[in-house]
Each structure stands twice: as C-alpha cells, then as structure tokens.
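hi! just following up on the protien thing from before. the input was this:
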Amino acid sequence: MPKPTTLLDARAIDRTLRRMADEIVELFGGTDDVVVVGIERRGVQLADRIVALIAKQEGVTVARGALDITLYRDDLQTVGPRPVVGRTQLPLTLDGKRVVIVDDVLYTGRTIRAALDELADFGRPARIALAVLVDRGGRELPIHADVVGRSVDVAPGQRVDVMLAEVDERDAVILADRDAA
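and the predicted 3d structure came back as:
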C-alpha cells in the first residue's frame, strides 16, 4: 500500500487561495454584486478565507453564504433514515447577483448539481461560477470549474483528503488510497 502523498501543505494552500481570490475578481471584472457561497463542510471554510483575501486585496467585503446540499442530493436514500442537515445561509435573494460556488474537491459533479438546484430556490443569479481547491477529474456530469486551485490525476482506488485548520486542526491536501484510514 503506497504511502499518502501531500499535494498541498499549509503554505501552498494559502498561496493557492490568494491566487484563486485574484482569479475570482478578474473573472467578474471586480466585486460588484458578487456573492461567495461555500458548500458545507470545507467549502464554507474555503469561502470564508477567499472572502477575507478579497477584502484584504481589494479593500471591499463581498457577501458570503453557505449551502448545505444534503436534501438536494440524488443519493439521499443511501444516506440513511435521518440525514444530518446543516444550515443554509444566503442573502435573502440571489436575483441578479454574480455567485461563486466554492467547494474543496470537484469529482463527479453531483455535489455541484445539488448546489445549483438549491441555489435556484433563492433566486435567479446573473451568473454562477465554480471555484474548487482541487479538481481530481472523474466527472459523471458535464460540470467544470471556472477557478481551480490544483488539478490532479487520481487513479482508481485513490481519494483526495482536504484538511483545514478550522475543522481538522491543520491545513493539507493529501492523496491517499481509498481504503487507508
């Protein structure tokens, strides 16, 4: 069994998020009407960091939100009889806003599909973009990220673990065997 590989350490995650924050501002040509929305769990922490970086770099605070997509999943019946549902926090309406969905890892695209379904309940944004820390490939749906921190080829039987200090007490992105603890 191969040893887990560190793809990004804490310093690399910080550099990557700074670049991603810049790319988001460039993508929209500024920060007007931008809302950065993180997907529970680690997407929320990444969104918080990106919002803080944009504030530091641009001198403005962009709106922030959080999505818990649990009830929008297409595999909800496999989650169990009592799924744990977190909070969704968004501005009252997203009508006409430019929304950036933030997630930690883009894999099949199903999480993003669920996020898009949930966002539709909060209005009709002018544009929706996707920013992910890691794109590991393996799409099942035609979804792509507009802003990618790191692209990595992941072999069958491997997984990408994102650890963030706010949740895991350290920052790292690790490539490990799917069966490894």
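Residues 93 and 103 are 21 Å apart (CA to CA).
Strands lie at 5-8, 34-39, 63-67, 98-106, 127-135, 147-151, 158-163, 172-177.
cheers
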